[in-house]
Specification:
220 residues; Rossmann fold; 6 helices; globular
Amino acid sequence: MGYPYDFDSPSGPVTRDELLRFLRGTIPDRRTVEAMAAVPRDQFVDPELRPFAWENRPLPIGHGQTISQPEIVGAMTAALRLSGRERVLEVGSGSGYQAAVLAELAREVVTVERIPELVARAAAILARLGYVNVEVRQAGEILGYPEGGPYEAILVAAAAPEAPEALLGQLAAGGRLVIPVGSRHEQTLMRITKGTDGRTIREDLGPCRFVPLIGRGAWP
């Protein structure tokens, strides 16, 4: 399964209903698609890009970052296997779109972002849309947000050379970490499940391409 990272080759405007129809045939988890149907992706991009908001591709949000492709948002969300009771950590808030999708499926979401302008932007959009169960935080020196842990699920929206120990340490027993792992240019999406004995089970979910995760335990 591949997730192209390319917003230079537009496919033309696509409607919300067309995108959702595509996702229903691609994402195996019905609850995830329902959550994505409830989130207005067009509100998380700049006005001039809103005609393209329902295309299945990433779009730029400034500062060298993107709002992720809907298909990969759905795949990563479904891979967390959320039941609705979890406290979830997202690393890499970006636009805030992924956090909103998670908020539709989880009890509480903490999302961290290293770029101050994106922190403020994501917090403002999420507040305006009424997401009271999302807490947006400025990223610190340690990856994640250990003060709020442990978390039953962690989603990392940027790529690391390997799963950072700092994030594994914030994962509760039985919790799932979904993260792109690999080089700066090509990665594999991994699901890492932490057992009650502290051991981990790693599953390869297919190729992907993400911007690099910056911080101790990831890229400098």
